[in-house]
Amino acid sequence: MDMCHLLEVKNLTKFFSKRLSHFAYAKKDSFAAVRDVSFSLDAGEALGLVGESGSGKTTVANMLLKLIEPDGGQILFGGEDITRLRGYKDLYPVRRNIQAVFQNSGTSLDPHMTLGEIITEPLKNYHLPTEGKAEESLALVGLPPEWARRRPHQLSGGQRQRVSIARAMVLKPSLLVLDEATSNLDVITASQIIALMRKLHEENNTAILFISHDISVVDRLCTRKVVMKDGMIVETLRSLDLSEARHPYTRRLIESKMSVSL
């Protein structure tokens, strides 16, 4: 493997049962949510994973974050095969370097904790100093440091998402996975969050995997766009130029965003 790759995904596959039961099922009773997906992400790179709802993007993210297990393929992180790592002890060092920001900040932030407690919780989990880190992290994401004593219900949706980003960045991870992190926000707030992520990405050289159904949003942050449809990668783009797009689905995605902007 080329060691410049921070993350390398090889032939990743995940099946889900068509039945409501979670018990063992025959392959004919299952469908492939992700099929033979392969891509790489370099250290310090911002890569977009884009596709409509049901295309398999979030399933890929959940496998990378070790929230669900793949049925086939490999996940290499920093040159180490983490595909079959399980349990707190094995995943402890990996999770320090891979952090995530999810779509709904309202459910991902504990309403009983202050913002300071939420942000410094990852530091406590790794027995790292917490003094002044909450205030420093709030300032980093454009929020007043004195808000460390506030609770999530006192914030707007965009402000809560900034807190989620602060919590994810406090460990200075090598990779930040953002799964539809702007889709619940209004256009202006989403634009501000994208600008913040670009700033943090450039200043900290943090690699980003940005997952979204909106190819134009992905384009604002990512230099490469991996397009998914029906659980498979159909192509990878560097620009939203129609002349570069080869797959009809990609062309439809680009054309739909062009028509909206007119």
Task: Write structural notes for this entry.
It is built from 9 helices and 10 strands. With 262 residues, it is of the alpha/beta class. The protein has one domain: Rossmann fold, CATH 3.40.50. Strands 6-7-8-3-9-10 form a 6-stranded mixed β-sheet, with helices on both faces. The radius of gyration is 19 Å and the shape is globular.
Largest sheet geometry: 6 strands, mixed
Shape: globular
- How helical, in percent, are the residues? 25-40%
Q: How many beta-strand runs?
A: 10
Strand content: 25-35%
Name the average pLDDT: 89
Give the distance, in angstroms, between the N- and C-terminal Cα atoms.
Answer: 44 Å
Tally of alpha and pi helices: 9
Instruction: Name the helix and strand elements from N-terminus to C-terminus, one letter apiece.
Output: EEEHEEHEHHHHEHEHEEH
Q: What class do helices, strands and sheet pairing give?
A: alpha/beta
The rounded Rg comes to: 19 Å
CATH superfamily: P-loop containing nucleotide triphosphate hydrolases
CATH topology: Rossmann fold
Strands side by side in the biggest sheet: 6-7-8-3-9-10
Low-confidence stretches: none
Task: Characterize this entry briefly.
By secondary structure, the chain is of the alpha/beta class.
Topology of helices and strands:
Blueprint: E1 5-17, E2 30-42, E3 46-50, H1 57-64, E4 72-77, E5 80-81, H2 87-97, E6 98-101, H3 105-108, H4 115-125, H5 133-140, H6 157-169, E7 175-179, H7 187-204, E8 207-212, H8 215-221, E9 224-229, E10 232-237, H9 248-261
Parallel strand pairs: 3-8, 3-9, 6-7, 7-8
Antiparallel strand pairs: 1-2, 1-4, 4-5, 9-10
